Structure formats: structure tokens, C-alpha cells
Amino acid sequence: MSISSNNPIRLSSRLMTAAGCVRPGSSIADVGTDHAYLPAYLILSGLSQSAAITDIADGPLARAQETVRKYNLQDRIKLYKTNGLEGVPPADDVFICGMGGELILDIILQTPWLKDSGRQIICQPMTRAYLLRRGLYSHGFEIYREIPTLCDRSSYIIICARYCGNPREVDDFAAYCGLAANDSSAAAKAYLGSVLDHARKKANGTRQQKWYDLCERIEKNTRRCGGTLFTKEGRGLNN
Ligand SMILES: C[S@@+](CC[C@H](N)C(=O)[O-])C[C@H]1O[C@@H](n2cnc3c(N)ncnc32)[C@H](O)[C@@H]1O
How far is the CA of 103 from the centre of ligand 1 (A)? Predict the structure, then answer.
């Protein structure tokens, strides 16, 4: 999907990747909006007509209000001071970015209207993505797209999910690597490299077999897909 280049708002590549997942014409909600750059960007691009934006804290809401006023979007964006999506009317595409995976999962599970296959959830966990994936699958959501992205030399993952009503359990490999395991992009290699770093650290610290098994699966997957994983120690894992 193409996004207008004359938009006055410049998003980070992390938020730009999330914005690129919107379905044109959708009503959107942005949870934990802070500065409200993402919804303002989508409306100014003409990709969305209206947004409900929420934050739990006063400082971020004041920043959001400032952006809404600056771009004269008062009739398009409605602000809510609330926990997650409490009291917010249903939207087509829901963004929950820049929070921990557990909190994102909690917000999704507390929102009954997200149990509808027509709604799209676009989320970007800063931590514990494995808990988010596991929880989504076990509560009947499906993850149908993941986009690894690089921003300021860190790797992030954007996860797109929707309700399908078929709960299932996933193993450690699926929970930690997600759909990035099938992706050969540089951003995916960086993302999987950070997962491997984590698994190696856990293996060294706990000596638990499950972490050695996870390292082995990631290494085997890399050999199968080809390419090099970039790990923190600067040692590439070559195929
Ligand atoms: C790190 S900022 C992320 C801002 C923006 N979404 C982004 O990705 O750049 C996290 C925001 O989430 C808000 N927040 C934390 N818990 C929340 C909750 N339960 N409901 C709504 N907002 C929440 C915080 O106040 C903060 O403004």
C-alpha cells in the first residue's frame, strides 16, 4: 500500500511499518497513543477518516491533544483517557504499539468487540512478544502477518492478528520466532538474531534443556533458510 510522501508528519520506521498495515478507509483506534503521530499521519494521508485514540496518562494525552490541534483534526480524532480500549466504540483497525507484550495481550483480551474476524489488530510489542503470540493463539486469535523492522539500530516486530475462534497452543519456537522464521529479509535476520541472543543467555544462565533446544531450532532454521543471523556479540551465525 502506498503512503503519501507529502505528509507533514514524519514517522519512525517502526511506526511507519505499523501504519503500512492499515486497510485504507478503515476507522482506527490507537491505544497508548502518546503523541498521536500515528493516527494523525493516517488521517492526513487520507488512509483513514476517523480515529479513537486512548492513553492512560495525562502527559501523553496533552501531547496527543497538541498534535490534534496543530493539524486541525478535532473533528476526526476523538481522545479518551482510559485503560486500553475501555469505553471506546469498535474500530476496524486497532493499533497497540510501543508497550510490553503482556500489557498488549491484556488490553486485547479485555475488549470483547475484538472477538470479530472483521477487525484487525496491529501491535508492536517492545518486550515479551512470545507471551503475546502464545496468548493470542490460545485465546482463538490468529497471527496472519508479521513484519520485522529495523529502527535506530534495533529490531522490532509488527504483528497483525484477528479473531478466528480456533484456540491452539504453540511451541517455544513458534512463540519466540513467530512468522519471522520464514522471512529472509535483513530485518528478520536481525530480529531472529536478538531472539537467539536471548535464548543463548537463558541457556547459559539456567542450563535448562528447553533453551538449548530453542537455540538449536533457530540455528537449524537459519541453515534451512540461508543467510546470516546478526547476534549481539557481533558474531554472525552463518549457514
Ligand atoms: C512508549 S509509549 C508508546 C507510544 C506510541 N504508541 C508509540 O508506539 O510510539 C506507551 C504509551 O502507552 C500508554 N499506556 C500504558 N498503559 C496503558 C493502558 N493500559 N491504556 C492506555 N494507554 C496506556 C503510556 O501512557 C504511554 O503514553
Answer: 10
